[in-house]
Amino acid sequence: MELAPCLSIKTGLPLATDCIDIMSENDRFMAQRQMYNGKIFANVAFAETPGCLITIRSGVFPKDKIGDRQAQKVHKDFPLADIKPGKAFVEFVETAAGDVDITQAELLVSVGRGIGEEENIALIKELAEALNGVVSCSRPIVDKNWLPKYLQVGTSGKSVSPKVYIAIGISGAFQHMAGTSAAGTIIAVNKDPKAPIFRTAHYGIVDDLFKIVPFLKDKILEAKKG
């Protein structure tokens, strides 16, 4: 957020920040960015220059799509070594990483405010365990201190790219869905048929999660036994 704009000014190269996708069209780079807290997806084209600068949002490019592609690294000495910096590095404080990294999970079972009470989150954990998946959540769950911050998906949490994203009791506010733009298949469970998440989900179940979640868990465990 600080280095890239400075490099853009010094080099005269165009810059696109916090990108969620990079494309090539007619030998020119284009970048996709989210605007207005994820309400709008914008494809940004660069001016014709020798190069461009792009910063990428963490978690939006799955490792399995990288393949064997490698970038060329060019090392250059910093030309202003004798100038006294106006800022000084004090320390680096690592945020709590937790036991799991939801950005690397292939299957996420995500829970929202529809779960009602903290003790009901155990249902979600049981379903995630049956599916060999990982639990994640929306911001209201973190705000209530029911689950830790490192499990939050959305603009104020993390962007994720699982093969399957199961959203349970999540209304689908754009701040949350902005973090799931790279998900493969989104499955939603919500008793409100007008919930915004059904506009994004590939599959949806309109019913009470307290009936659906135990049913799904039992069917999955039966399939494993059979």
Proportion of residues in β-strands = 15-25%
The CATH architecture of the largest domain comes to 3-Layer(aba) Sandwich
For the biggest β-sheet, the strand order reads 6-5-7-8-9
What top-tier CATH class of the largest domain fits best?
Answer: Alpha Beta
CATH topology description of the largest domain: Rossmann fold
The number of distinct helices, counting runs of at least 4 residues, comes to 5
In CATH, the homologous superfamily of the largest domain goes by the name TPP-binding domain
Description of the molecule:
The protein is α/β, with parallel strands linked by helices and 226 residues long. It has two domains: 3-57, no CATH class; 103-225, TPP-binding domain (Rossmann fold, 3-Layer(aba) Sandwich). It has helices at 3-11, 121-130, 139-143, 174-177, 209-225; strands spanning 15-25, 28-35, 40-45, 53-56, 107-111, 134-137, 164-168, 185-189, 203-205. Strand 1 and strand 2 (28-35) form a beta hairpin. Helix 2 (121-130) packs parallel to helix 5. It is elongated and about 65 Å long.
